[in-house]
Known about the structure:
Radius of gyration of chain A: 13 Å
Distance between the termini of chain B: 36 Å
Distance between the termini of chain A: 40 Å
Structural class of chain A: mainly beta
Shape of chain A: globular
Shape of chain B: globular
Order of helices and strands of chain B: EEEEEEEEEEE
Radius of gyration of chain B: 13 Å
Oligomer: heterodimer
Number of strands of chain A: 11
Order of helices and strands of chain A: EEEEEEEEEEE
Amino acid sequence: TQLLEQSPQFLSIQEGENLTVYCNSSSVFSSLQWYRQEPGEGPVLLVTVVTGGEVKKLKRLTFQFGDARKDSSLHITAAQPGDTGLYLCAATSGTYKYIFGTGTRLKVLA
Amino acid sequence: NAGVMQNPRHLVRRRGQEARLRCSPMKGHSHVYWYRQLPEEGLKFMVYLQKENIIDESGMPKERFSAEFPKEGPSILRIQQVVRGDSAAYFCASSPDRGSEAFFGQGTRLTVV
């Protein structure tokens, strides 16, 4: 069974700090996505990475796909309270079925 | 362009009743996926449907759960004789074709009392 482990599970930081969350697996994936989910809402797609070593930036968010396509990281620079939410990674081995990670619950304090 | 629409947003059912959850995919999307999210957990794949076809229902419980995506109208996830353990958020996602990026609806929160 393919598993995606996310770490840390919970993270509480002050506004302005930087942070990195990780998504790891022993399986190789053809593509990986990062979502943010706010309470009471559905996951919102942030980015899709498909190439080993790929780096994508979305304003203060930097996403990296590992060279071996088994892991990914999300780095947030100068976190803001609006970044608070549940961050989920999801990956597929080339089919339609996405496996979701366990999530990192981020809280940014003003 | 409207996103994925799910209704109702909240549904309360007594044990033993039936729950029907609806999902209208984004315009132009003919592929629908249903996921379940238990409190404090990630999303678990349930079923993948195209118009009039169930492609993969490997994540669906064997009993009481069924899904359809008719030629006309929304996709329906049906749970018969609900039990407390069915309480969860049920999310629908749609994509224009197989394996493309999927976009999620806001979910239906089912509470079984």
